[in-house]
């Protein structure tokens, strides 16, 4: 048996083991096979609910990567989920589908709007101040901004991509892109051209759909992989790069980074500021580790989290618990981490499963994870997409996180 066959066999066996144990580990698992893989996923903030319905309807944002075999599309989808988690009976686990919570055919993911897009959708994010405005990261360099209300539900057959605004400036593609949570209409993006660029779409003039950046931030010496706005300081953001450095910036001075540190010994793929701890951020790297940082002293990392077996690709803090974040990796796993558990004593048996801060590991995918997103309305519920065309919506069993949350001070992590 050659190496590829052995690898496929191992993945298949791991997936079978996951399905066997899933009824005990999850309150919800829904799996949907897309026609093409999505490189991006996000829950919209709104929820539709009627008193006479036993379910709520959630909107999802995804895209396509057709490798240019077919027209690429930006998709908005609907999913119906039970109102009460206790409506989901683990005993009703559908082993063939690997699902818990598939109480009827009506709760399958349904594409309700598709918009033509030039090339694969590397990343798509809605404007938090106006979710009808959706920015997409393209393979060519420009960022597109679509007003979904100005597009029909079905894509035009001519395949023409017609964004309302084209954010010009980048000379390479990228993935990192984020709207400011504090300053309406401000957006940052990262690129293989080694820069971070910053636009304010309030400056858009209808005479032309092209908008040039407010600022260009130069300093990295290799591709910039990701950026993160600070959650409480509107002028502060962080960037990470294949040059192995973490930079923090102040938008009021684009000439140089405010701080910088060699943060890993390999490419850095992702960065995320804590939404509740103003001095805390995390970085994820091709060195398979996640690092915790205190902005007041970047000369020494607070803690190193080890648990993934391949590149760490995505990081996102939970909107439900201030000490919890999720990570995704090329190892086909999504992990939940609780930094309040760092340093807890473990039995040798527990230590074999991972460090004390490892709260949960999702093993439902059979290929590399492309993106992850927390639901803001459903506690401890995530969406994850992977290269095998699968999108999964899942929530660990509530007994895994129902314990009283422990507040944490950054000093305790040192």
TrEMBL record:
GO terms for biological process: chromatin organization. WD repeats lie at residues 167-209, 217-259, 261-297, 305-347, 362-395. SUPFAM superfamilies: WD40 repeat-like. Coiled coil: none annotated. Gene3D superfamilies: YVTN repeat-like/Quinoprotein amine dehydrogenase. One of its GO terms (cellular component) is nucleus. Residues 13-83 form the Histone-binding protein RBBP4-like N-terminal domain. Keywords: Chromatin regulator, Nucleus, Repeat, WD repeat. It is found in: Nucleus. Its main location: nucleus. InterPro entries: Histone-bd_RBBP4-like_N, WD40/YVTN_repeat-like_dom_sf, WD40_PAC1, WD40_repeat_CS, WD40_repeat_dom_sf, WD40_rpt, WD_repeat_RBAP46/RBAP48/MSI1. The keyword Kinase does not apply. This is Histone-binding protein RBBP4-like N-terminal domain-containing protein.
């Amino acid at each position: 048996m050659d190496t590829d066959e052995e690898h496929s066999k191992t993945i298949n066996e791991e997936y079978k083991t996951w399905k066997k144990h899933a009824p005990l580990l999850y309150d919800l698992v829904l799996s949907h096979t897309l026609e093409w893989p999505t490189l991006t996923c996000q829950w919209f903030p709104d929820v539709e609910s009627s008193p006479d319905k036993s379910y709520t309807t959630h909107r999802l944002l995804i895209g396509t990567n057709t490798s240019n075999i077919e027209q690429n599309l930006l998709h908005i989808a609907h999913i119906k989920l039970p109102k009460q988690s206790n409506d989901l009976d683990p005993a009703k686990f559908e082993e063939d589908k690997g699902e818990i919570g598939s109480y009827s055919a009506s709760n399958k993911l349904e594409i309700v709007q598709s918009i033509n897009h030039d090339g694969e959708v590397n990343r798509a994010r809605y404007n938090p101040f106006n979710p009808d405005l959706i920015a997409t990261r393209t393979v060519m360099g420009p960022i597109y901004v679509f007003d979904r209300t100005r597009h029909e539900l079905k894509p035009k057959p001519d395949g023409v991509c017609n964004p309302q605004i084209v954010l010009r400036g980048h000379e390479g593609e990228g993935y990192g892109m984020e709207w400011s949570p504090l300053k309406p209409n401000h957006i940052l993006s990262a690129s293989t051209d080694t820069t971070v660029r910053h636009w304010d779409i309030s400056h858009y003039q209808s005479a032309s759909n092209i908008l040039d950046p407010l600022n260009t931030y130069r300093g990295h010496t290799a591709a910039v992989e990701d950026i993160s706005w600070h959650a409480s300081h509107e002028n502060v953001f962080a960037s990470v790069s294949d040059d192995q450095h973490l930079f923090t910036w102040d938008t009021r001075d684009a000439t140089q980074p405010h701080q910088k540190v060699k943060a890993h010994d390999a490419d850095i793929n992702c960065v995320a500021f804590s939404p509740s701890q103003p001095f805390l951020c995390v970085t994820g790297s091709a060195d398979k580790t996640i690092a915790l940082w205190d902005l007041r002293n970047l000369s020494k990392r607070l803690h190193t989290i080890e648990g993934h077996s391949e590149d760490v690709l995505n990081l996102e803090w939970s909107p439900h618990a201030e000490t919890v974040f999720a990570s995704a990796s090329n190892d086909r796993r999504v992990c939940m981490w609780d930094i309040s558990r760092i340093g807890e004593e473990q039995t040798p048996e527990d230590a074999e499963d991972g460090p004390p801060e490892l709260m949960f590991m999702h093993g439902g995918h059979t290929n590399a994870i492309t993106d992850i997103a927390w639901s803001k309305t459903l506690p401890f519920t995530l969406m994850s997409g992977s290269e095998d065309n699968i999108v999964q919506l899942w929530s660990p069993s509530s007994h895994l996180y129902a314990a009283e949350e422990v507040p944490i001070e950054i000093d305790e992590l040192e």
